[in-house]
Amino acid sequence: MQPGDYYVGIDLGERFSQICFIPGADKANARAVENITTGKGSYLFPNGAPLSRIFKNGTCTDPEQLEKIFRGLLSALKEKKTAGSPAGIGVCLHEFSKENAAAVTAALEKCGIAAMKTSVFSREEAFAGYVYGMPPALRDPGSMVFDYGETGIFSYFLKEYRSGKNVYTTVTPLAGSLQLFGPGVLGREALADQESDLSDFFNESLKGQNCAAIYLTGCYFDTDQFPEGLLKKLCTGRRVFAGQNLYVKGACLLAADDGTLKLFGRSIPAMQNRITAGISVILMQGGRGRELTLVRQGESYLKADRTCYFMEEGLNSVTVLVRDREKEPQTVQLSLTGFPARDDRSVRLKLTVHFPGTDKAELKLEDDGFGAFYASTERSAEETVELDEKKEAPGESQDQKAAAKPFSAVIPKGAWLMPAGTPARHPLPVGKSQRCVWSVEELGYYIYHSMYLIERDFINAGLLQFLKSTGSGRLAANLASQIQKEEPLSKSLSSILKECGLYTEDEISRLSVQFDSLKAARPYQRMNMVAENLIVNDCLNSAMENLNKIIAGPRDASLSDRFYGRVWHNLGIVYTRCFLFDRAAECFAKAFELNEEPASSMAALQAKILARGSAYVSAKAEDPEDVRAKKAISSTRDNARFTAQWRLLEQIESEKDPGKPEEYYSRMGEFLEELKDSYLKLTN
Fold first, then answer.
1. In terms of Cα–Cα distance, which of 302, 288, 418, 285 is closest to 351?
2. Are 515 and 451 in contact (CB under 8 A)?
């Protein structure tokens, strides 16, 4: 048996516990579950202390003794199966509470079982897991368990019911059947002495209940022979099973199900600890929305918490849909007011879904920043959604549904929201500056905006390991194959850009062509292409250095005047964006002398107008070129209000609350910090 290809079930009883396992290949087959026996042949392992001493008032008071119980059980398992650690462990905890469940997980961690492998279930859940491992005929129209322990008989009824399009499974205590029997002596005589009382108890419990199978378990039903009259009553019209491995097998099958809910088939489990609400988020792309399911109906609330990451641009809010049973979806809008607005697809959001219980869901949306490129503003939006905790079949008409408006938000043109990968535990330093990236999206962003810095050694073992740590193992394998085949570096970079999801096929294709051209270009051509890329990315100081090196260097006779004209034009753009309009005008004029391009001539005229301001006077009255230049400048000024920074400033002003000046100044301070970051980038 290989490590991790089997699942384990544990039942923690008051005085005795049990353990069993199931091979991964047979995890949907209840008959494949194998119980582990003690040296004396019994399936029951005595606890070092009664469970009621270890757990008191919903908390664990003796974690050392609990750990000791688990070590003993796992030791017995190891004697049976010596290889590897199990893929998952399910524990049935009779006195269930969230605190007790956490104590069980902590105790197993000390035994070497990772918390993510441990699931803790209530008695109701373990019973349901066992029943759904049996043939469907044994649960239709219902199944019942009588658990006779030292504190009396617990009885539960499992049934399926249809509500709208869905089928739900409930496991509920039987009303009015809390009669206690015991303490007494184990064995046939004790049951025989109580045959009359038990008959009355079963008659009361089964009155009006339509069930296909009855299960008898618990220490006081641990006998090889039941009173004949009692069995005759129970077996009339139904099948009866007696044994002590119901909960341990159920926990094992639920552990093997591993939250997939495949064990329950078409039915949604709605018993204790199960949430009946499905939660999804609306993704946006190309002006259209689609749903991404985060939490499904029927999951255990102990393991239903989710942390998801998204990349966003141009949205006013993130839409979450909550489907609670058969009600209309409840639309929850998490506002992005105050969140950063950037045009370069670098807004990363973190969405947390937390279930403190089965009665509510807490949603929190946070600005996660964008690694070393943009720090988080620590903005967040929160909502709490009340859920239907009712575990019984609804008595009202199915036509009575909660009034809630379905999703019909207006999507801004060009806005989008896409899932992002999980950040790595350790960052990847990239480039000469060793800037750290934490996710595939940040890696793609760096490649797209720093293509001019990338050489062949960029694809290395460290990068491949980083991709594996972010869940992109397939991409890492693909890149390794490309390296082995000595394929072009542009192909590897394109593969990463496709994986990050931030860029379109056309954008990636253009960048790939540009990259190949850059590598094949002559030294001055390459320096100019690098400078153009630096200008696009607002790294003006570096761009200026490259352009001045070309101009100051020895002239390359193989390059035309048109090329050098383009270099001077690019230098004019740099000076313009640095507000050095006099120098810009000289550069554009020099460019026009070399390339005779109308664009350079017009740029020179615009730079002169901007340099002189109101002192500018045209050499010719109403010169058409002069008029066109002034209109272009005016249009540029008018369009400034459509930039992300302008929009954010307008938003801050429009939401200014005279009664909360500190909030306004705080947001303005954040805005100024962003301007500082932009300035530092310009002078990089």
1. 418
2. yes
